[in-house]
Amino acid sequence: MDKDKRSFRNKAKGPLGNKTKRSFRRRFPPIQSGDQIDYRNVSLIRRFISEQGKILSRRVTKLTLKQQRFITSAIKQARILSFLPFVQNTEKRFEFERARSVAKTTSSRSRTPAKTTSSRSRTPWYRKNSTES
């Protein structure tokens, strides 16, 4: 074979001209073969939960379908048995709500209560016509 033909096989032609193919680095699996997916293994389970407490998707965690199912059921069992909280970072939420309530009470405007009485009579529709007969 000519030298030119061999070099052509190792190159991919793109919109910007010839460029060499990249070799992708193989990523390590997020769950090792010795790790056991269980609701008691909290250190493993916490890696697959977001900061808000949501279960991360398979695309993000790079798990297989079977592993994702086991992780999801383990997280749900751990939440029920109170190994894991259902919602995380609640301190920030409570601080925000507390700041809002303080701002509402210190506001200079006062709201007038909504009108609760109505000018219409409160008799049901089926009793209105009963007096005629």
What are the secondary-structure elements, in order, as H or E?
HEEHHHHH
Helical residue percent band: 25-40%
Please state roughly what percent of the residues sit in beta strands, choosing from under 5%, 5-15%, 15-25%, 25-35%, 35-45% or over 45%.
Answer: 5-15%
Helix segment count? 6
CATH architecture of the domain at 42-105: Irregular
The fourth-level CATH homologous superfamily of the domain at 42-105 is Ribosomal protein S18
Q: Could you report the average pLDDT, rounded to the nearest whole number? A: 76
- Strand order in space, largest sheet: 1-2
What does this structure look like?
Helices cover 38% and strands 6% of the residues. The protein is built from 6 helices and 2 strands. It has 133 residues and is mostly helical. Strands 1-2 form a two-stranded antiparallel ribbon. It has a domain at 42-105: Ribosomal protein S18 (30s Ribosomal Protein S18, Irregular).
Which secondary structure elements does this structure contain, and how are they paired or packed?
Blueprint: H1 3-9, E1 11-14, E2 17-20, H2 42-45, H3 58-61, H4 65-80, H5 90-105, H6 125-128
Antiparallel strand pairs: 1-2
